[in-house]
Design goal:
By secondary structure, the chain is an alpha/beta fold. 39% of the residues lie in helices and 14% in strands. A 7-stranded mixed beta sheet has the order 3-2-1-4-6-5-7, with helices on both faces. Helix 3 links the parallel strand 2 and strand 3. Helix 6 runs parallel beside helix 9.
Length: 263
């Protein structure tokens, strides 16, 4: 499985002091041994709120566990959920990695499945792979009902518009080939939470291969930073922009079909 591939894990964190240690504790030894770097990107607070202790918790964890592969970055200005990811992917590209796996710092997604996710990419030669909660038992994992039905609705609409057959679009457990990311206009995507759908649309336009695995769902008492109605409206807006661009009614550069060329 990808033995010659350089792999980086990107942990995007925001006010994660209560969950980050439990997430790191769940990283299997096989994952730590196999990956080349684990990068934790701690985003800055919004609106003048005070910064939490994520950095101190992670630094203490790194020292105690002698985890040399763990790199800790703390942003001085808030980049947003999407902006934090873009920064991390740019970092991975500059460092010459082949594959980057993204996981949230709130411990909702299983680091135990990092190697199976990468293996799936290798088996199917996929450019993008993600862990799907919706193909498993999301309600058994305490996914709130409003998120469960909202996910079903949005994913159904996205599949119809894009002609895809994915079980969900909104998972935060993802792996990308860096060669694929370099071929799409990543910088034009949103800095907000709907970044995850922006980038899937770009990959679909570029005819990149997408794969998925089933993962367990973990919901606890962590705070949700997503404004659900606004998020849903942004997803529908993205689909409208895609359709307008596709049918030459109005061009949105981030979804330009001019980028849909062989490389």
């Amino acid at each position: 499985m990808a033995k010659n591939k350089k792999i980086m894990v990107l942990i995007v964190a925001y006010n994660a002091e209560k969950t980050i240690k439990s997430l790191l504790d769940r990283f299997p030894k096989e994952v730590i041994s196999r990956v080349d770097e684990i990068l934790l990107a701690d985003d800055a607070p919004l609106g003048g709120t005070s910064r939490d202790n994520t950095l101190a918790v992670v630094e203490a964890y790194k020292k105690k566990n002698k985890l040399k592969k763990l790199t800790i970055i703390q942003h001085e200005k808030n980049k947003g959920y999407g902006g934090n990811q873009k920064w991390g992917y740019d970092y991975a590209i500059k460092k010459g990695y082949d594959i980057v796996v993204m996981v949230h710092g709130d411990a909702q997604y299983p680091p135990e499945y990092i190697l199976p996710l990468v293996a799936k990419m290798e088996e199917e030669k996929a450019d993008f792979a993600f862990g799907s909660r919706m193909s498993g038992d999301p309600l058994g994992g305490k996914m709130p009902l409003y998120k469960f039905f909202g996910n079903i609705f949005l994913t159904t609409v996205e599949n119809i518009v894009l002609g895809t057959h994915l079980t969900e679009f909104h998972s935060g457990f993802r792996a990308y080939r860096l060669d694929a990311l370099k071929q799409i206009p990543l910088a034009l995507t949103s800095d907000n939470f709907h970044f995850d759908s922006d980038i899937i649309v770009q990959l679909v336009i570029a005819k990149k291969k997408i794969s998925e695995i089933t993962i367990p769902t973990f919901y606890g008492d962590e705070k949700c930073n997503v404004k659900v109605i606004q998020y849903g409206m942004n997803i529908l807006k993205i689909l409208g922009q895609y359709l307008l661009t596709k049918y030459n009614l109005k061009e949105y550069p981030k979804f330009s079909f001019k980028n849909d060329q062989p490389h």
